[in-house]
Amino acid sequence: AQTVTQSQPEMSVQEAETVTLSCTYDTSESDYYLFWYKQPPSRQMILVIRQEAYKQQNATENRFSVNFQKAAKSFSLKISDSQLGDAAMYFCATMNRDDKIIFGKGTRLHILP
Amino acid sequence: DTGVSQDPRHKITKRGQNVTFRCDPISEHNRLYWYRQTLGQGPEFLTYFQNEAQLEKSRLLSDRFSAERPKGSFSTLEIQRTEQGDSAMYLCASSFLSHGGYTFGSGTRLTVV
């Protein structure tokens, strides 16, 4: 069974600074996908970034990047130049070949002006 | 295409009543997923369809829950004899190739009083 653990229920970062959200996961498969989703208050889930487990290169999307450590089963999200609009719940998630995404409990990110 | 649509956005019902939610996926997406999200938690998988076939149901989906996707287009999720524990946000998502991640709707918030 897949499990996803986000050990930081809440985090705060000063506007324009960099913040890293942690995530560890467990899966018995060698081929899987990893995601970070963002859920702003009262708004829908948005895909931030995805990573294929077979790729060693860390994914990057503009100010968002990941640090994927496959052996450690770690998948952290780094947000650079934090903006007020980045305030949201962030969910780490995995998907095996069964095409089912399993989410962690989330990290609430506060941006301090 | 306006994305994944869910109706209604909010539903308040009395305990014991039946409720039905509707999800309209992105038209070219063949996969459709239902998740449940309680306050402060990550989304939990309920069930998913590929075209009109329901491929998996979670143990969370008791006999009071039923989902359909006639003709492989929109989907409905019905909860019979609602209980207070059913109060949650019900999220629908769709995808064409699931490893690309899902597109989520805005959800239906159910309150059972």
How many E-type strands of chain A? 12
What order do the SSEs of chain A take from the amino end to the carboxyl end, as H and E? EEEEEEEEEEEE
| Assembly category | heterodimer
Q: Into which percent range does the helicity of residues of chain A fall?
A: under 10%
**Total beta strand runs of chain B:** 11
Low-confidence stretches of chain B: none
Discrete helix count of chain B: 0
Largest sheet of chain A: 6 strands, mixed
Largest interface: A-B, 23 and 22 residues
What is the 3D shape of chain B?
Answer: globular
Q: Biggest sheet of chain B, open or closed, and with what strands and sense? A: 7 strands, mixed
β-strand amount of chain B:
over 45%
Class by alpha and beta content of chain B = mainly beta
Helix content of chain B: under 10%
User: In DSSP terms, counting alpha (H) and pi (I) runs of 4 or more, how many helices of chain A?
Assistant: 0
Structure description:
The complex is a heterodimer of chains A (113) and B (113). Chain A is an all-beta fold and 113 residues long. Chain A has no helices and twelve strands. In chain A, strands 2, 5, 6, 10, 11 and 12 form a six-stranded mixed sheet that branches. Chain A has a four-stranded antiparallel sheet with strand order 3-9-8-7, with no helix packed on it. In chain A, strands 1-4 form a two-stranded antiparallel sheet. The model of chain A has no long low-confidence stretch (mean pLDDT 94). Chain B is mostly beta strands and 113 residues long. Helices cover 0% and strands 50% of the residues of chain B. In chain B, the strands form two sheets. In chain B, strands 2, 4, 5, 6, 9, 10 and 11 form a seven-stranded mixed sheet that branches. In chain B, strands 1-3-8-7 form a four-stranded antiparallel sheet, with no helix packed on it.
